[in-house]
Amino acid sequence: MNNTDRRISLITGANKGIGLEIARQLGKAGHRILLGARDTGRGQQAAKTLSDEGIDVRFVSLDLGNPASIKAAAADIEANEGRLDVLVNNAGVAVQGDGNTSIATMDAVRTTFETNFFGTVEVTQALLPLVKKSASGRIVNISSGLGSIALNADPTWDYAAVKLIGYNASKAALNMFTVILADELKDTGIKVNVVNPGYTATDLNGNSGHQTVAEGAQEAVRVALLPDDGPTGAFTSKEGPDPW
Ligand code: NAP
Question: Cβ contacts of residue 200 below 8 Å, gap of 6+?
């Protein structure tokens, strides 16, 4: 099978955690994997791990905080692949100094938005012309239950105590981005959805999450593989729809 037969998927921040596992599961589903990572060594190592598992994969250098890197990644994919079928906007940060409004540092709030929102929007803008070349493009944004305004407003929610003005607001903004982009693309074959992976043991939370990365990747992979009559503009977890 050559590149044009396989679905081509780019996963950002795929050198570890949920992103690496999404890359693995999409690779096992037969996709050609473009493994996005900002660090060349870590990206190449992760690509080798998947390649050793029999997955068709190559590393693509991509730093969401660096516009030149985003442009270069888009040029690379255009030149070498010609199109992009699936974009998984997985890269994200949670940083020290974030917290409730009275104590969060503005540096932490801005740093979080830089990756989780601005960088994600910029990557999507740069790659959209290539996704439009796909016969059935899919854009999957990785949000969080913490990005749900409805859940944040519910004092009985299990995670009601986790009030991080930078992180939670950046994921709420990502949810809004999903709705706005899905609307813009509603008359194309491109589906734009956002998923809450659930609380998953990764470096983001000091490996405190109760799910494995395989469980954390599950919903993103399902949405990346949606059929052409699937939904667009939805916010879901593996348990079903999430409230906005
Ligand atoms: P993780 O293990 O810390 O992985 C985050 C990934 O994002 C890493 O590959 C990291 O690269 C990359 N990244 C960060 N900033 C980047 C940048 N500027 N450019 C490119 N890549 C960048 O965390 P994770 O838990 O797998 O998180 C994946 C996604 O799931 C995030 O969007 C997170 O917010 C979301 N999420 C996670 C949980 C959870 O419980 N774990 C719950 C809800 C949502 P480096 O290795 O170079 O830092």
Answer: 17, 18, 209, 211, 212, 213, 215, 216
